[in-house]
Amino acid sequence: MSAELSPLTLETETELPERQGPPLPQTTQETINTIVHYYRGEMGRMAGWRDRIDRTSNWAITVVAAMLSVSLSTPSSHHGVLLFAILLISLLLLIEARRYRFFDVYRARVRQLERGYFAQILAPEGMPSLKWSASIAKSLRKPAFLMSYREAVYRRLQRNYCWMYLILLLAWALKISSPKISSNGEPFGHVRSWADVTENAALGPLPGWAVMIGVALFYVLVLYASLHKEHHEGELAHGEVHV
């Protein structure tokens, strides 16, 4: 027989009775030690999410390289391999954008600590301010994303993925504009007109013109996102080194 759940199991922390919490730092040295350990913890979380972002980018680069190798090394391979590569890196872009939103939260806390505390220790400027600590405290009490999912997709697309999309587009255009190769290695079906290119672009039951229109619309969205400028720069306004 399964054990019954204790009533305390379903209670949230706000419903628990008020009790004495752990002691807060009482001296300057204790406060400094706390800030140093907290900084190390935030650096660890930021580095962890940065590693996840790099892994996704590496997967995308590997997919592009593998699909290009399969498509361009074999003359008889279908151009749909490159369209499938576009689909795969789009999925990886969406995954990376989600990870980037988490990374951006911890990166912002680290940068606020560095600007507001450590920079003031190394080279004081003006009067010390508590705005940075209040901002971090607010984020710790109620964590929230600092950018929308769409903005994260735009930023990762501008940093890395726009170049991958461009390489795949050029390879796809080369594939559908090249003559087909017979089993004995002789070229046939030479591309002499736009109609031949459209015929080569066909994908299963889809006619070539429909595939080309779909690719064109998709790359219009990629171009728009790649040239999009953010209304607020956030942490990017405090220096040129960013991710």
UniProtKB/TrEMBL annotation:
Keyword Transmembrane helix tagged: yes
Biased composition (Low complexity): 1-11
Domain of life from the UniProt record: Bacteria
Matches recorded under Pfam families: DUF2270 (PF10028)
Keywords: Membrane, Transmembrane, Transmembrane helix
InterPro entries to which the protein is assigned, alphabetical: UCP01500 (IPR014470)
Sequence intervals crossing the membrane: 80-97, 160-178, 206-227
Annotated stretches, region: Disordered: 1-27
UniProt key word Methyltransferase: no
Coiled-coil region: none
Record protein name field: DUF2270 domain-containing protein
Organism: Sinorhizobium psoraleae
